[in-house]
């Protein structure tokens, strides 16, 4: 029998040796120029599986930094490590978005309210009164499309402006900073916060081991953690969140002069959050709370609006700051550069089909128009690679731009042809250029324009040597705690307690003791009192302070960073529940409704039963049944009852809980005399927010935070 030949390794397609397996490797830890953690295999390791490689076996020298032209320069297209890593990440899920999977969208209009031609040649900002259509998609980040609306999470705030110069996609969040400084780390961040790979949970939650393990090893994330643990991450409504472009962009004017710019969306209704207990209960009462709120407001004609603001500054300002303006984990305090309002966006139409529009909309940070350009922010540079790539996987075709929600409203012409699901029918044979077909009387197609076409801002030497090719972060990127401390100290005492309590809750879900200790050790670099409160809440000894690569500097607190310091007492856009039952006074109910609606709010009638109920003065139909309309769904509550009905309701758990929750969530409770026995049963104590019905116009829907220490323990 002939000897069976030994198979060539090139024809052995088994992957058994390509898996991580059970190998135990103790890496050598070091810190880079920006204090990023590098974990190296170390010397003399023979096992080839110990080495991190790309998918073709090339060993990787640096898994923390993109390759860029100079320390502060742009990311280079030749970085095959970054390209492959993000390429693979972009195609991990089909067809749901990997992040921002659960979203809500609406159409609207943007209007320029202050022309700034001296700063930018962007057509939409050249003349006051110029308008363009917009489409906005709000979203959570961590959860899948089937998760709920109200987890503690960042909210996506993506705006597509259909300008006469092409689509401008301002793709941001409701928080002005981000977890990481370099796009190289984005797959790792998302992998850590998504449900754990071996068990498939938790869904839409960051309170688990892998996320906090990653965060404890990434001090650059600590500023974002302060925001994520604050009330900004549990908003009351999409209509009441701010939006940020996050990155530093650039304005370019007609003369070719450039300045840096940061973009802000300021909600006209003001910023408002829920409490954590409220967010949890809303998730059970109405998983679609934010989606429903946005749809119903637009459907009722209460069109939400945001003012577009800009912070504009030059390199001279940037050079003087104790942080790097290209670092996405940093912000520019509004006290240093005030936000200048230049436009207003109003959402005035719901989608006709959720899938065709909200699900198929594709946002690209690369969609900019003349007058707006990129900076060398390494996180932004990586996003410019990533977004276009991911649309092919999610939408299935390179022609995704032909889907109506993605198509520009201005003419577009090029020589791109064919491809899967091509819906256009180009005519003629001009599918290349240059060509001379016009000389024979044929249509030769469009051509480039040096004068009118998009041109990139030319300068790339701002504190940067573009002749270098480096995997390195700029030195100021290593300060991870100064702005985290700035954010914490800018909050009210009540908001600081919420941050401390959120950290305790999240870390209490972590089962790895060393991870909890490391995170609290990082928090000590932000504020000692905060770290002590968190340690006490976890019943652990205060761990040693983690080493900071750069000692934090004290920055002047910024009131603009606090929700409560900027609270607006308006009733506009808020929803007030009025509890009634058989025999209630219709005239009193109608009077209260008029007060609420006259101030721009919405009155929602709640009763033990829906349908027509006999009341004093006629018949009244409830908008919602008591057990299905808990008080967590409303901004304030009121009650108009008879003695008999109040007594009966005091024996029903849903009614007692209705008032207990409203009181516990620091909401206004307006009531008549008969309701007092029900309030007594619910343990509601008299304070400035528990008032008579006729005082509601004076107090409104504001939160009464002084009440909170009476109703729950805060860290």
From TrEMBL:
Its cofactor is heme. Its EC number is 1.11.1.6. Heme binds at residues 97, 137, 186, 383, 387, 394. SMART domains: Catalase. The active site is at residues 100, 173. It catalyses: 2 H2O2 = O2 + 2 H2O. Decomposes hydrogen peroxide into water and oxygen; serves to protect cells from the toxic effects of hydrogen peroxide. Belongs to the catalase family. HPII subfamily. This is Catalase. The gene is katE.
């Amino acid at each position: 029998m002939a000897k069976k030949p030994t198979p060539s390794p090139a024809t052995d397609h088994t992957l058994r040796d390509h898996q991580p397996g059970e190998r135990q490797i103790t890496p050598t830890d070091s810190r880079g120029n920006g204090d990023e953690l590098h974990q190296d295999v170390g010397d003399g390791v023979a096992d080839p599986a110990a080495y991190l490689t790309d998918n073709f076996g090339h060993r990787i020298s640096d898994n923390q930094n993109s390759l860029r032209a100079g320390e502060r320069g742009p990311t280079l297209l030749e970085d095959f490590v970054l390209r492959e890593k993000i390429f693979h990440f972009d195609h991990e899920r089909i067809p749901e978005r990997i992040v921002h999977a659960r979203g809500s969208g609406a159409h609207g209009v943007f209007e320029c309210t202050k022309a700034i031609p001296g700063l930018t040649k962007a057509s939409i900002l050249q003349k006051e009164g110029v308008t363009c259509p917009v489409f906005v998609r709000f979203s959570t980040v961590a959860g899948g499309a089937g998760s709920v609306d109200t987890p503690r999470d960042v909210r996506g705030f993506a705006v597509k402006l259909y300008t006469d110069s092409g689509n401008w996609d301002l793709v941001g969040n409701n928080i002005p900073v981000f977890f990481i400084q370099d796009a190289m780390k984005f797959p790792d961040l998302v992998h850590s916060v998504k449900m754990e790979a071996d068990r498939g949970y938790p869904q839409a939650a960051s309170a688990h081991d892998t996320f906090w393990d990653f965060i404890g090893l990434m001090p650059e994330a600590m500023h974002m953690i302060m925001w994520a643990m604050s009330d900004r991450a549990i908003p009351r409504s999409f209509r009441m969140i701010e939006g940020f472009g996050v990155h530093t962009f650039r304005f370019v004017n007609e003369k070719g002069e450039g300045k840096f710019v940061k973009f802000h969306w300021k909600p006209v209704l003001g910023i408002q959050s829920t409490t954590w207990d409220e967010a949890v209960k809303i998730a059970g009462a109405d998983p679609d709370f934010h989606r429903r709120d946005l749809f119903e407001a637009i459907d009722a004609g209460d069109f939400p609006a945001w003012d577009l603001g800009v912070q504009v500054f030059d390199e001279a300002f940037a050079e003087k700051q104790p942080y790097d303006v290209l670092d996405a984990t940093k912000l520019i305090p509004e006290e240093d550069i005030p936000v200048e309002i230049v436009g207003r966006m109003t959402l005035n139409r719901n989608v006709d089909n959720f899938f065709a529009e909200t699900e198929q909309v594709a946002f690209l940070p690369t969609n900019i128009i003349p007058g707006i350009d990129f900076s060398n922010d390494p996180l932004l540079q990586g996003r410019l690679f990533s977004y276009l790539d991911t649309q092919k996987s999610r939408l299935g075709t390179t022609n995704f731009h032909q889907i109506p929600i993605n198509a520009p409203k201005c003419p577009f012409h090029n020589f791109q042809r064919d491809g899967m699901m091509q819906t256009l029918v180009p005519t003629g044979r001009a599918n290349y250029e240059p060509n001379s077909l016009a000389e024979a009387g044929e249509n030769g197609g469009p051509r480039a324009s040096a004068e009118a076409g998009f041109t990139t801002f030319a300068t790339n030497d701002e504190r940067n040597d573009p002749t270098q090719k480096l995997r390195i972060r700029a030195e100021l990127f290593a300060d991870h705690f100064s702005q985290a401390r700035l954010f914490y100290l800018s909050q009210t005492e009540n908001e600081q307690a919420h941050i401390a309590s959120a950290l305790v809750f999240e870390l209490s879900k972590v089962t790895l003791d060393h991870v909890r200790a490391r995170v609290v050790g990082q928090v000590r670099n932000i504020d000692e009192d905060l770290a002590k409160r968190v340690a006490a809440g976890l019943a652990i000894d205060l761990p040693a302070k983690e080493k900071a690569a750069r000692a934090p500097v004290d920055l002047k607190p910024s009131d603009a960073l606090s929700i409560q310091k900027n609270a607006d007492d308006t009733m506009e856009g808020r929803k007030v529940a009025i509890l009634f039952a058989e025999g209630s006074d219709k005239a009193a109910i109608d009077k209260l409704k008029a007060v609420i609606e006259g101030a721009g709010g919405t009155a929602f009638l709640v009763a033990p039963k829906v349908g027509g109920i006999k009341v004093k003065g006629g018949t009244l139909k409830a908008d919602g049944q008591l057990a299905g309309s808990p008080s967590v769904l409303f901004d304030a509550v009121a009650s108009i009852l008879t003695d008999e009905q109040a007594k009966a309701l005091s024996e029903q758990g849903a009614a007692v809980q209705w008032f207990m929750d409203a009181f516990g969530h620091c909401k206004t409770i307006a009531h008549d005399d008969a309701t007092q026995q029900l309030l007594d049963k619910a343990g509601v104590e008299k304070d400035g927010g528990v008032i008579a019905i006729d005082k509601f116009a004076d107090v409104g829907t504001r939160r009464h935070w002084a009440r909170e220490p009476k109703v729950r323990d805060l860290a």
